[in-house]
Amino acid sequence: MNDAFHIINKPSDWQRHDAEHLPGKMQALAATATIANERDLDKSAERFRPSAALLTAINAALAARVPLLLTGEPGTGKTQVAWFIKRFFKIPLFAYQVHSNSQAADMRYDFDAVAYLRDAYVARHGGETPSNSPLSGGEPEKIDPRSQQRYLKPGALWQAYDSTTECVLLIDEIDKAPRDFPNDLLQELDQSRFEHPFHKGEYVSRKGAPPIIIITSNGERRLPDAFLRRCMVHHIALDKDLLLEIMTAWQSQFPHLHPDTREAALKRFNEIRDIPRLSKKPGAAELLLWLSVLSAQGVSKAALADSVALKDLPALMCLIKDHTDYGHLG
């Protein structure tokens, strides 16, 4: 039994478990946290191995200083490109994760309307207003109190513009946003500025060089033509060569797999990806998860041999996300 995998069991005697086995189990559990920490984007930047084609796209976008839009299925390393550039130049990175309800204004700033209205109510009706509130009395404000730091927080775009050094701006998974979101960023992409939300006629403009803008898309929907015209576009295909590169870069995550076993696992993984009827093909994240579990289980090359049916491969729950796909494994 491999203790790296069989962390939890079914105790027959809970008192004995607590007295004798729990300390060792907690140590084994802590080891899994170390594995998870290695997936941190900042740490994993040094493992990233961009292809020659991707490097050409990155350098072209830098030479022209235009946004680089990276497309491809999840797990191809699109997001990691921004962190790779951050690590390469050792410059700040400002990231915005796009959501289905995102608006372009969210990238510019966040306004705490609740705190502002609460302070305004207290100031008007009496009571103890926080001392750091611009509504707490004293000298009258010469500027709109809503622009005070207590209420107005710069977003990723504003922070990038405030940077006096080179920096990276990541707009992650832009295809998740409403259709107007990309078009609402056109002025920012062209002019590197936007109007201050509360100071009419005043603009927030970049203080240093234009940010190195990396935009990612999983291709869930087509982006507007006007937006695409302002970007350099590169598609990252999750092919067999890229999967081999990813597996090699992350091999320290599965130390108990012999190189021959890793190669056998990748071969069987590609066989599963080649099945046309799968509703959800496993990607790079699933591959790394599978290899980590196989390593923890101490799986041998024999368990992954060509003679083993795909449906009988170990730890398939790491690869198959739709239960109906098990029926397509043969």
TrEMBL record:
<dbReference type="Pfam" id="PF07728">
    <property type="entry name" value="AAA_5"/>
</dbReference>
<feature type="domain" description="AAA+ ATPase">
    <location>
        <begin position="64"/>
        <end position="248"/>
    </location>
</feature>
<dbReference type="InterPro" id="IPR027417">
    <property type="entry name" value="P-loop_NTPase"/>
</dbReference>
<dbReference type="InterPro" id="IPR011704">
    <property type="entry name" value="ATPase_dyneun-rel_AAA"/>
</dbReference>
<dbReference type="InterPro" id="IPR003593">
    <property type="entry name" value="AAA+_ATPase"/>
</dbReference>
<protein>
    <submittedName>
        <fullName>MoxR family ATPase</fullName>
    </submittedName>
</protein>
